[in-house]
Structures are given as structure tokens and as C-alpha cells.
């Protein structure tokens, strides 16, 4: 066994022990001695695999949130995350559908079930060493909302290739009241010898250094946030240009007067868009 594999194995054992400690146990279904033998390689677990249940952390899931509860949860969760990372001097930026929401009005897309952020591989390593399994207390500006969030770093974060595909999410910022979360993925220069300056995550999203830096300063959900430099090109490549002009989507319509997505009364959609599907290395080439 090579040294990197030994390190991953040790980190996985430690992570799973902490993971199991944080997992509430039912009095009616006690863990049995043989349960450890059926553990798979996937670190983060959800209560189901569909577009709804697949966006909750199993340890804190108590039931599906209403539209209003989900909106409130995600609003405060991203504010807590961005403020905490900024206060600690940790570099992070918004990505994917979260970045698309920022493009429209500096807010999250109301039909989205989770939020996405990115960090560098070096930052991810720092989080794993210094802040893994830490709890962060949040109080809203009006002091009416008080919540706790768990920063949980996947022990497989040190493996920067996709592997078996079970651990493409490197870390999560989890609302401990209901299990909704922010996905955190790291970007690394995985092949500097043949692709210098190309940064990728384990889900085949790739960016050039000039796409990301220098970061732009803006606001997201009312708090300071960093935005990739070539945000428009990134969004068009990931979602196509129609995502920047389409004004009706997922049971919502864009209201230009209020600059907000408004839910259509009596209408909705159980379908959730999956614009950032994994792309194998042999697929679409990086922009030159």
C-alpha cells in the first residue's frame, strides 16, 4: 500500500468514527456489532437519492422542509458561512447555481435545494487539519435567529482525483436543525505537468487561473462574497447562454420591477435542474 493510500485509510477511519459519533441513534434500532462491516466508501450520506431527500444530511434529517422553511434555512446558512470564512481569513467563493443566482439579483435561486461554494486545494487541506468537525454559532443581525452549523470535511478530500465517484463533495456546512447543507468543493491543479494553470474539482469542472483570479468583491444574500473573475464565461459554459435570459423556470417567473424570482401561484415543478453533470476528462476541452 502506497503512503497516500495509507494516509487516506487512516483519515477515513478517523472521519467515520467522528461521523458515527455525530449520527443520532434511535433507541428502537441500536447499532449492532456487525454494522461496521457494511460501511461503503461514501462518506456523506443522505436519507434518499432523489432530488429532495438527496439534499439533506442523514444525521440531522427530521423531515422535508416546506418551501418557506427551506428558503429561510438557506438564506441564514450562506450568510453564516460567508461571514465565518471572511472573519477567519479563509478564501472561498460561490459557484454553480449559487453563482447563477448572484448573476440575476445577488440572491439564491428560490427553487434550489442547496448552495455551492468552492475553495482551493490548499484551503481545503487547512480546513481538514484545523477546522474539521467544528461547530459554528450564528446570530442574525436583528438577533432574532440563532443557529448552529457543522463544518464537516470529507476524509477523502486529500484524494484529488474522482476515484469511484462516491466522494466528489469535499466538505459540507450543515444546518444542525434539519440537515440542509452547503456543498464545498476544492479546486486543485491536478496535472501541472501537462495542464499547467488548469484547476479542477472531482466532478470534472475545470477552470483556468484567469477564469478565477483576481476574484471580484460583491454581495450575496446581503453579505460580502467573492465572485470568480470570468463569472459570465463560467456561467455560459456550465449552463449555456439561455440561463442568463430565460425568465420562467421551475415554477417561478422573473419580475423585472422587483428584480426577484416570484413563485407562480398554484404552480410548481418536482424537477430540479442538474446543470453541472460530471464530464469525463476526454470530454469538452478547456477554453484556450
Dominant shape: globular
How many strand elements? 13
Which whole number gives the mean pLDDT? 86
What is the H/E string?
HHEHEHEEEEEEHEEHEEE
Strand adjacency order, main sheet: 1-2-6-5-4-3
How many separate helices?
Answer: 6
Instruction: Indicate the structural class.
Output: alpha+beta
Termini separation: 38 Å
What is the radius of gyration computed over CA atoms, rounded to a whole number of angstroms? Answer: 19 Å
Percentage of β-strand residues: 15-25%
Low-confidence residue ranges: 1-14, 20-31, 267-274, 276-288
What secondary-structure arrangement, pairings included, does this model have?
Blueprint: H1 3-22, H2 67-87, E1 93-94, H3 96-105, E2 115-120, H4 121-131, E3 134-139, E4 146-153, E5 171-175, E6 181-187, E7 198-200, E8 206-208, H5 209-212, E9 216-220, E10 223-227, H6 231-239, E11 248-249, E12 252-255, E13 260-263
Parallel strand pairs: 2-6
Antiparallel strand pairs: 1-2, 3-4, 4-5, 5-6, 7-8, 9-10, 11-12, 12-13
Helix pairs in contact: 3-6
Characterization of this structure:
With 288 residues, this protein is of the alpha+beta class. It is built from 6 helices and 13 strands. It is 26% helix and 21% strand. A 6-stranded mixed beta sheet has the order 1-2-6-5-4-3. A 3-stranded antiparallel beta sheet has the order 11-12-13, with no helix packed on it. A two-stranded antiparallel sheet has the order 7-8. β7 (198-200) and β8 form a beta hairpin. It is globular.
Amino acid at each position: 500500500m502506497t503512503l497516500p493510500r495509507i494516509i487516506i485509510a487512516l483519515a477515513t477511519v478517523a472521519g467515520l468514527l467522528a461521523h458515527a459519533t455525530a449520527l443520532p441513534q434511535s433507541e428502537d434500532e441500536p447499532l449492532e456489532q456487525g454494522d461496521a462491516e457494511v460501511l461503503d466508501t461514501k462518506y456523506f450520506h443522505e436519507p434518499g437519492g432523489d432530488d429532495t431527500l438527496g439534499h439533506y444530511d442523514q444525521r440531522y434529517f427530521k423531515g422535508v422542509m416546506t418551501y418557506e422553511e427551506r428558503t429561510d434555512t438557506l438564506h441564514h446558512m450562506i450568510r453564516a458561512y460567508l461571514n465565518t470564512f471572511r472573519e477567519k481569513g479563509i478564501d472561498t467563493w460561490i459557484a454553480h447555481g449559487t453563482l447563477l443566482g448572484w448573476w440575476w439579483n445577488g440572491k439564491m435561486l428560490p427553487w434550489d435545494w442547496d448552495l455551492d461554494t468552492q475553495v482551493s486545494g490548499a484551503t481545503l487541506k487547512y480546513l481538514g487539519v484545523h477546522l474539521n468537525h467544528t461547530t459554528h454559532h450564528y446570530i442574525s443581525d436583528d438577533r432574532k435567529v440563532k443557529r448552529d452549523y457543522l463544518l464537516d470535511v470529507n476524509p477523502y478530500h486529500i484524494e484529488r482525483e474522482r476515484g469511484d465517484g462516491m466522494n466528489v463533495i469535499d466538505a459540507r456546512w450543515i444546518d444542525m436543525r434539519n440537515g440542509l447543507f452547503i456543498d464545498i468543493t476544492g479546486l486543485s491543479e491536478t496535472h501541472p505537468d501537462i495542464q499547467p494553470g488548469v484547476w479542477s474539482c472531482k466532478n470534472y469542472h475545470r477552470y483556468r487561473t484567469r477564469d478565477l483570479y483576481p476574484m471580484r468583491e460583491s454581495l450575496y444574500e446581503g453579505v460580502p462574497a467573492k465572485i470568480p473573475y470570468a463569472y459570465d464565461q463560467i456561467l455560459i459554459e456550465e449552463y449555456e447562454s439561455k440561463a442568463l435570459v430565460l425568465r420562467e423556470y421551475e415554477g417561478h417567473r422573473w419580475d423585472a420591477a422587483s428584480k426577484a424570482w416570484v413563485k407562480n401561484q398554484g404552480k410548481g415543478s418536482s424537477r430540479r435542474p442538474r446543470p453541472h453533470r460530471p464530464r469525463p476528462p476526454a470530454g469538452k476541452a478547456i477554453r484556450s
